[in-house]
Q: What sequence folds into this?
């Protein structure tokens, strides 16, 4: 029962407080539960040791169905605010590869291919960057350990970062960049490497916004004839003009095109939903229907680029 209370307190402190105040159950004070939860030895520092590596998944694997265990391993790096904290008798925030506080963390998550199941299996806090060799060792260890506890890892998904590519290339001998490698648990089986399409999608939009030329123009070849010159022009300022034209209209052709999508902050640039507000059929229709009427610059080629 105490385990259930710990989970509830961790997920929703407000729900725990509401349940306690209802009087139906005699449960500990939230302050007591926080002390119990923070004293559990489940922090990224202790997880680096061999005896604690994937300790949580070793227990959870026993209650999962077989359809949950055919998975892909997703890898991503998140940036952290660098500081140390003292909780539950432990110093938290230390890096895996340094005696200083971590500046980022590599997060390993598994996603089932046959069910909705997904779970974070490992977090590795690091100081600055680690090289491809060290990352390869951790990725390989994670895959082998997951296979050892009953999971079947089909592939790895990550962004197009050079360190990730270097790490994945080491699964082949000699190292080479490929979409398929020998599986570390059984070389007769394939291990697929997939670059995250969402990351590529965001990068296209971000590179377009970051163009420093007049009109924030992005130049691209004709998709039907790559040898055709000159290059076509996608004009980002044209989208801003389209937004201004329709900003006061109740009914809009470019439905969903917002100021936040056109001028995102650095944090908002990570939101793929804002990317989809630009790359959609409504914006294409708006450019095609209003472009000639309002003489928008390069509206035809901009709509081709978005399509």
A:
């Amino acid at each position: 029962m105490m385990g259930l209370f710990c989970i509830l307190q961790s997920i929703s402190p407000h729900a725990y407080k509401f349940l306690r105040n209802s009087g139906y159950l005699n449960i500990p004070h939230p302050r007591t539960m926080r002390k119990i939860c923070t004293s559990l030895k489940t922090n990224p520092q202790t997880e680096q040791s061999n005896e604690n590596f994937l300790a949580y998944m070793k227990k959870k694997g026993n209650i999962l169905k077989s359809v949950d265990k055919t998975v892909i391993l997703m890898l991503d790096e998140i940036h952290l605010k660098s500081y140390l904290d003292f909780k539950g008798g432990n110093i938290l925030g230390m890096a895996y590869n340094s005696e200083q506080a971590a500046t980022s963390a590599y997060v390993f998550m598994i996603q089932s291919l046959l069910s909705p199941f997904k779970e974070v299996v490992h977090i590795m806090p690091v100081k600055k960057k680690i090289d491809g060799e060290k990352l390869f060792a951790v990725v390989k260890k994670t895959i082998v350990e997951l296979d050892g506890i009953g999971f079947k890892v089909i592939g790895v998904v990550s962004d197009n970062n050079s360190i990730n590519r270097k790490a994945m290339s080491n699964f082949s001998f000699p190292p080479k960049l490929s979409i398929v490698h020998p599986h570390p648990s059984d070389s007769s089986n394939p291990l697929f490497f997939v670059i995250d399409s969402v990351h590529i999608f965001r990068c296209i939009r971000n590179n377009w916004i970051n163009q420093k030329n007049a009109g924030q123009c992005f130049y691209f070849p004709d998709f039907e004839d790559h040898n055709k010159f000159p290059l076509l022009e996608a004009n980002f300022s044209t989208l801003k003009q389209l937004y201004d034209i329709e900003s006061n209209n109740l009914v809009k052709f470019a439905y969903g095109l917002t100021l936040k999508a056109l001028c995102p902050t650095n944090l908002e640039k990570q939101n793929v939903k804002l990317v989809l507000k630009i790359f959609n059929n409504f914006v294409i229709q708006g450019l095609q229907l209003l472009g000639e009427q309002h003489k928008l610059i390069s509206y035809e080629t901009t709509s081709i680029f978005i399509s």
Remarks:
- The chain has a mean pLDDT of 83.
- The radius of gyration is 25 Å.
- The longest strand covers residues 70-79.
- DSSP finds 13 helices and ten strands in the chain.
